[in-house]
Every structure is written in C-alpha cells, then in structure tokens.
Amino acid sequence: MLAKREIFEEHHDMFRESVKKFIQKHVAPYHDQWDKKGIVSRDFWLEAGAAGILCPDVPSKYGGADGDFRHNIIVVEELMKVGATGPGVSVHSDIVIPYIMNYGTEEQKKSWLPGMCEGRLIGAIAMTEPGTGSDLQSVKTTADITDNEVILNGQKTFITNGQNADLIIVVAKTDPKQGAKGTSLIMCEGDREGFKRGRNLDKVGLKAQDTSELFFDNVHVPKFNIIGEKGRGFYQLMEELPQERLAIAVSAVAACEAALEWTIDYVNERNVFGKKIAEFQNTKFKLAELKTEVNVAQIYIDDCIKKHLNKNFDAADGAMAKLWTTELQCKLVDTCVQLHGGYGYMREYPIARAWEDARVQRIYGGTNEIMKEIISRTLNK
Ligand SMILES: Cc1cc2nc3c(=O)[nH]c(=O)nc-3n(C[C@H](O)[C@H](O)[C@H](O)COP(=O)(O)OP(=O)(O)OC[C@H]3O[C@@H](n4cnc5c(N)ncnc54)[C@H](O)[C@@H]3O)c2cc1C
Fold this sequence. Notes:
By secondary structure, the chain is α+β, with helices and mostly antiparallel strands. It has three domains: 10-118, Acyl-CoA dehydrogenase/oxidase, N-terminal domain (Butyryl-Coa Dehydrogenase, subunit A, domain 1), CATH 1.10.540; 123-230, Butyryl-CoA Dehydrogenase, subunit A, domain 2; 235-377, Butyryl-CoA Dehydrogenase, subunit A, domain 3, CATH 1.20.140. The protein has helices spanning 10-26, 31-37, 42-50, 69-81, 89-103, 106-118, 233-269, 281-309, 315-340, 350-358, 368-377, and strands at residues 123-126, 142-145, 149-160, 167-173, 183-189, 195-200, 211-222, 226-227, 271-272, 275-276. The protein is globular, with a radius of gyration of 21 Å. The chain binds flavin-adenine dinucleotide (FAD).
C-alpha cells in the first residue's frame, strides 16, 4: 500500500517472501490456539529456526544467516501484518542476541548462539522486578560472585518468553552499594536448581505471548555466565536499548499499516443507511489522515533504520522513534475500532486484537514518559 521502501535490497525482498510463506504455513493457522493457551508452541520455535528466521543477522559461524538488522525487522513486520503478536521473536533475536554478540566471549557465543538460531534455546531478558521497572538502577536481585561461580537471588516480573525461555539474561547487582556501576548481566539457564517460573500472567492483550514472573533462590551459575565485564551491566543496557526501542517502533508502524488495511476492507464491505461506510466523508477523512500519518511514520522509521545500520542511532533517537510510533499506533487502532462499530470490539475481528495488543507498546521497552525524559536530556543547554 505504501511506496516502495529504499532501505531494502533485492535479497531482503526475497527473504521477505520466504518469511511471508513461513508465517502463512507455521503461524497463521496456529495463532488462535496459542492465543487460547497463552503461549506459543516450542514447535514454532524449532520451525522458525529451521526456516532461518530466528536471529538472521548472526554470523553463519554461530549458526545465523549472515544477514543484517533489516532481515530482523522484516520478520517483525511480517508477523505484525497478520496480527501475529504471539511469537516473542523480537525479544529473542533483536534484544537478547545483541548482548551475547556485542559483549559475549567467543566461548559464550559458541555455547549459546547456535541453539538460539535453531530455536532449541529460547531467549529472554529479565530487567523488571515487582518493585522497579522504569528505575532500572534500583533492581534488588543480587548476583554474588564467589571464586568460581555466581549466586543469583531475587525476583523478576513481566518477563516476555518467561515460560518458554531456556536462556535468561538477568539484570542483577554484583555490588549493591554501587548503584548503576554495581549492575551486571548474568545468563541463567532455565534448568538451574533454585530457578522457578511463576504464573504465566493474564494480560489485556498479547494473549498468545507468555509473560512471567521468575524467581531466583540461591541459583548457582558458573562465572562463565557473566556477560561482559562485571559492573558494566547498566552501560550495556543503555547501549542496547535503542535497538530494542527501534524494533518496537518498527512493529508499531507495521501494526498501523495492517490495521489500516483491515479497516479499509471493512468500510468498503459494510453498508449503513444504504451506502458503504467508506462513502461517508467522516470515514474518508479519518482514513486519509491515518494513511498520511502511517506514510510519514514509515519514512521516519526507515531513516532511523538507516542511521542504526550506520551505527549512528543514539538513545534519544531510539526514544523518539518509540514514543512517536507507539502513540500513533494507539491512536490509529482506536480510530479503526470506531470505524468497525460493534464488530471492532469483537475478538474475532483482527482489529479488536490489534487494539488490545497496542496498549502495551507505550509501556514496555521503557514507558513513553521515560522516552520523553531521555529526549529532554538532549535539550539542556
Ligand atoms: C507485556 C509486557 C511485557 C514485558 N516484557 C518485559 C521483558 O521481557 N523484560 C523486562 O525486563 N521487562 C518487561 N516488561 C516490563 C516493562 O518494561 C515495565 O513494565 C516498564 O518498564 C514500566 O515499569 P513498571 O511497570 O515498573 O512501571 P513504573 O516504573 O512503576 O511506572 C509507573 C508510571 O510512572 C511513570 N514514571 C516512572 N518514572 C517516571 C519518571 N521519571 N518521570 C515521569 N513518569 C515516570 C511511568 O511512565 C508510568 O506511567 C514487560 C511489561 C509488559 C506489560
């Protein structure tokens, strides 16, 4: 529907076609089941791994496809275009993997990446705790480093892929007195003694995605599992969060595009007062406004992707991208629900689910208020 996007090359277009086919065969027919169960099947992860759509930007020597971030976002976009918000692929590929790629040792990469590319090992990142989300420096989970191991104690919540995860990056304090400087990232395998998964949380939307509480009760992991330097965890998070926020922004724009298409189809089918809803001036004007905004968003986000590929995308850029696109997404899906009338409130219509799914985009990955804080720091003279 939108103009051809210049950021992609021919091989990306081919990859997109294969992702679309994969989704038609391995995602669309099962998404309702996952929605009812509150979790995506492990078969999906293995099939996605076999199809090369997990972590496509990882080098082939670690099991990836030697792609780039554009391959990753193609997966995000195509899932959103069919309303498939269940698979937590973006957390796995776009958020967890970079910590291993950018800060992991060669041995850590060899241990973890091939399984993650195959879908045998599912990734999660555990920052948020019951007592702290926005204020990451205040995490209470501790990681005591002894001569040859690390002992984790604490509790996390709202963790995406939490039920399925095999590898969880835990944000923990290695030196609680040091604040941000005492924070480290520790990998915890899902089968460690003392590690327990809590409830699969009952959410307003993203029904097919597992989101969990996690508990760490004297969990011993080897020192091998420290990702990057001890005490550098907060810095590593700040370095990687812009990509996380860009991935959320990409998903927001793709969700907008899908919602708009479903709505255009709907208003052209349904008759009210003897004419199509599409013929009312209100409908035409609303859709014209939304289409314009989605176009603007797409061009803006493609520019962000270009900057990110050129390693020129900073914290404020990530915050602006997430802020603007997720606010647009929530506004747009709400208008689209309205244009569907009562059917827009029925979960059998994709627009109703898109509306449920949209709301959290303004909350996770850092709330939009925190995005404004980050942006405002660049305005100080
Ligand atoms: C579905 C879902 C999936 C998630 N997945 C993950 C995951 O995989 N891993 C993970 O670690 N976390 C995850 N989260 C957690 C998410 O990142 C946090 O919920 C979010 O960062 C907000 O933290 P909080 O919930 O503690 O809210 P709080 O920090 O308590 O914020 C409450 C309100 O106060 C506002 N506020 C806070 N500080 C400021 C400030 N300085 N200025 C102005 N306003 C402020 C916030 O904007 C918000 O409106 C997920 C959450 C959800 C709902």
